[in-house]
Automatic annotation (TrEMBL):
Name of the protein: Chromosomal replication initiator protein DnaA
Natural source organism: Sideroxyarcus emersonii
Binding sites annotated in the UniProt record for ATP: 155, 157-159
Signal peptide: none
PANTHER family linked to this entry: CHROMOSOMAL REPLICATION INITIATOR PROTEIN DNAA
Record remark: domains: Domain I is involved in oligomerization and binding regulators, domain II is flexibile and of varying length in different bacteria, domain III forms the AAA+ region, while domain IV binds dsDNA.
Subunit (UniProt): Oligomerizes as a right-handed, spiral filament on DNA at oriC.
SMART domains found in the cross-reference section: AAA (SM00382), Bac_DnaA_C (SM00760)
């Protein structure tokens, strides 16, 4: 039986089982070869190989059994510039974060925050791909993915990952020339270079870097001079295998006021999203932050805070700081009752802002349909999908039960609401446009 048959079997299976985006990213690029009683798998890069090892190798091994007389040995390879490099045998990868660095970045005018390292970054479903990509880039800068483009809403950890990359690269190579800079400061640098007619020094500095970390790139929109200079900088660094990592609040092709050639360059490496954290991840973040501050809280208190502060990590930290300060001032232990007192203004504003009527009106206006259509029995896609999104938002943003939500949408039962929520949660993992719509509606409703 041929390697082509084995490849076809595996590709067909995974194409049925996985979202198209995951299939195209991780499975389709694999090359299958049979060498005697050995199965050779070649991936285009080490990051893809790591994902395949962690997620898909057991199933590939299982599907390979009929093609060999005994369970085959599996050899993993990475294809590099026409040659194939064999990597060590498959080992169980550790989930322990990389240790915090002890050295600081060299020649870095915008100093890295030593506390923002992989050790202090809480991972979960919402950010696991971005976290894995960041570690890969930090371990092999200029090799894994270039540029790495991380996008997501405010306060979700993009800057933390950016700085963690810089800190790990600095630890591994103290002589590396690293620059972490916010896009607004980069713009100011371009303006000063124009004013002083000193572009040679400006270009020389950025072209000499080993690692450029640029935060909130959306701020260069509608600034053609800055975009031109950044395009040249980006090309120069990538062409010389120097690593660039960029963060943004939205998917590259959805940034308005950016030149197409720059958008194209943004997407030539790897683009990964960070989503708003789920409940369990919010609890984990609170427990870690409270322990680090010396005022550990119980899981009950963490769950209470996490259920009421849902939008981003920054707001979670703010709520925790407020509770800790309130406890210190009143010289009381932190409990759910104390948390309610400390956050009473936030809780009152939250209950006042988000209502079922507001959710339905906001979603209907966003998709340019009538509220009456959301409540109707119509099942056309242009009506059904916004209805499912509205139900999912209602479950996340209100305290209403599933039957109460169903009743508010034309008397539907709780199973319909549950199905809608599961459908939207699944689609958010595979449909970046729908996910962006959902996040925008979520943030709009939260005010």
């Amino acid at each position: 039986m041929s390697a082509q048959s084995l490849s076809g079997s595996c590709l067909s299976f995974f194409k049925e089982q996985l979202p198209l985006q995951q299939y195209n990213s991780w499975i389709k690029p694999l090359i299958f070869e049979i060498d005697g009683e050995k199965l050779v798998l070649t991936a285009p890069n080490s990051f893809t190989l790591r994902i395949v090892q962690e997620r898909f190798l057991p199933e590939i091994s299982k599907r390979a059994l009929p093609f060999f007389s005994s369970p085959p040995q599996i050899e993993l390879r990475i294809e590099k510039r026409g040659s194939k490099v064999t990597v060590p045998p498959v080992q169980q990868t550790s989930s322990k974060p990389i240790a915090a660095p002890t050295t600081k970045a060299v020649k870095n005018p915008n100093k890295l925050n030593a506390s923002l390292v992989f050790d202090t970054f809480v991972t979960g479903k919402a950010n696991q791909l971005a976290h894995a990509a960041a570690i890969q880039v930090a371990e092999t800068p200029g090799v894994a993915y270039n540029p790495l483009f991380i996008y997501g809403g405010v306060g979700l950890g993009k800057t933390h990952l950016l700085q963690a990359i810089g800190n790990l690269v600095s630890k591994q190579n103290p002589q590396a020339r690293i620059c972490y800079i916010h896009a607004t400061n980069y713009i100011s640098g371009v303006v000063r270079a124009f004013q002083t007619k000193n572009f040679d020094e400006f270009k020389q500095f950025y072209n000499s870097l080993d690692l450029l970390l640029i935060d909130d790139i959306q701020f260069i929109a509608d600034k053609p001079g800055t975009q031109q200079e950044f395009f040249y900088t980006l090309n120069s660094l990538i062409d010389t295998n120097k690593q660039v990592v960029i963060t943004c609040d939205t998917f590259p092709k959805e940034i308005t006021g950016i030149e197409p050639r720059l958008t194209s360059r943004f997407t030539c490496g790897l683009t990964v999203a960070i989503e708003p954290p789920g409940l369990e991840m919010r609890v984990a973040i609170l427990l870690q932050k409270s322990a680090a501050s010396g005022s550990p809280i119980s899981e009950d208190v963490a769950f209470f805070i996490a259920k009421h502060v849902r939008s981003n990590i920054r707001e979670l930290e703010g709520a925790l700081n407020r509770i800790e300060a309130y406890a210190r001032f009143h010289k009381r232990a932190i409990s759910i009752e104390l948390a309610k007192e400390a956050l009473k203004d936030l809780l009152a504003a939250q209950n006042k802002q988000v209502s079922m009527e507001n959710i339905q009106k906001t979603v209907a206006d966003f998709y340019r349909i009538k509220i009456v259509d959301l409540l109707s029995k119509k099942r056309t896609r242009v009506i059904a999908r916004p209805r499912q999104i509205a139900m999912c938002l209602a479950r996340e943003l209100t305290q209403l039960s599933l039957p109460e939500i169903g009743n508010a949408f034309g008397g539907r039962d709780h199973s319909t609401v549950l199905h809608a929520c599961k459908t939207i949660e699944s689609l958010r993992n595979s449909d970046s446009a729908l996910n962006a719509d959902f996040n925008l509606l979520n943030q709009t409703l939260r005010g």
